[in-house]
Amino acid sequence: MHSASPLVLHDGYARGFMLVLLSAFCYGLQPLFAQYAYAGGADPVGLLLVRFVFAASILLLFLRLRGMRLPRGRLAGQNLLVGVGYGFAALGYYSASRSTSVSLAVILMFSFPAFVTALSIAYLGERTSPLKLLSLVLALGGVLLATGLSFQGEMSGVLWALFSALSYGSAIVYGTHSIRHEQPLASAAMVLLGCALTFALAALFFGATPPSGAPAWWATLGLALFATILPVAAFLAGSPHIGSSSASTLSTLEPVVAVTIAVLLIGEHISAGMLGGGLMVVAAAIILSRQGGTLPEPSLIPLPVPEEPDDRL
């Protein structure tokens, strides 16, 4: 058995690099699609219900055509539970972006790696280090700076965004430390089903307003295809070739894309405090990702990825 040549490995890394970069960019498009859906009268529950029903249906159809089986038994239940956690995170993020600025919601939600690290240290016995402590301080300082050290006037949006980060961090800790994924794409389908079921129940008990009008429905379909299915596929295809550390670092492109869209296309104003706080939060995420932790794509279903590039090309 011979090793792959350096040229093949380089090509594999470059392909994986571009796929993970594409994944982060596509996730950053979420605010743009959401704005058109909201303009059509949708509320967060209605929009996310349609998004995840579309996305889960498309992925399930793909798996059926490929002859791939869904997880069963305990693993299926675990994946559905992760989907519930991710659904709560999505609800917090989308509710925050309606209650406060998209830019602030993105910055606060992106503090989730700090929650992952704190939960892992507190409950899983993960060893701490000066760099991890520095990243936690940076993340906390970035959140305080981005909110202007005051929650007045934007309390609901800030709390929704922090709820999103905490929910996503909890889902990641559970998904990466308690579940052994046999087939990541099939697990992804179950997680999306969990999201869809979460919002179906929310709509049943609390009501939901779906998009209305062709532009809003096209935007919602775009959200399901180009900001859910495509980045899921790109991340799962690319991350094994570059490792989780590099993949997590590249994922920091997402908030940059989202904030750029909010400023240039939605017309939001970003203050110096928000910019500085955002940079601190992103810096904290990069430090944590380079420490070898399993911090997946911020808006991706939490699935573990290999720590080292895969040379079986």
Model description:
The chain is mainly α and 313 residues long. It has one domain. The chain contains 12 helices and no strands. Helix 3 packs antiparallel against helix 9, helix 4 packs across helix 9 and helix 5 packs parallel to helix 8. It is globular and about 50 Å long. 52% of the residues are buried. The C terminus is likely disordered.
Shape: globular
Low-confidence stretches: 293-298, 300-313
Total domain units: 1
Could you give the distance between the termini? 13 Å
What's the overall average pLDDT, rounded?
A: 80
Q: Biggest β-sheet: count, sense, barrel?
A: none
What's the helix-strand series?
HHHHHHHHHHHH
Based on secondary structure, the structural category is mainly alpha
